[in-house]
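Could you help me review a protein record that somebody else here produced? This is what I was given.
***
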Amino acid sequence: MKKKKINNHNSNNSTSKTILVVEDNDSLSKLIKIKLEDNGYRVLAVTNAEDAFKILKKTAPDLIWLDVYLPGMNGLEFLKKLRSDAKTKHIKVAVVSVSGSNKKIEIAEKLSIEGYFVKSNYKLDELIEQVRKILK
């Protein structure tokens, strides 16, 4: 069986922007990665906050796609730590979570996020469009 070659650069929407996806659901993470790459983005994907910080020591993405529910350090704790470091506090963050409680949204918004998106309210393509708007 031949491997299908994936074109990561959509010629009509080519961009060199990098997105770090921090999502603990492996299947969803892979799907998000594929969709973002199909839209011309470079994608780094991890399933926990600790691995995200390892990547952030080496590279600064243009955007972090952040889930709230993560094993170990949760997304809001990650966001607080991210904002407390001079090297990473400027990075744009879009929180994408199953939980849309007012308290969580309020905490995240105080930590200077670009948007808080409840997964059940959006199709994946609509979330990709939100990412495109944030990175314009």
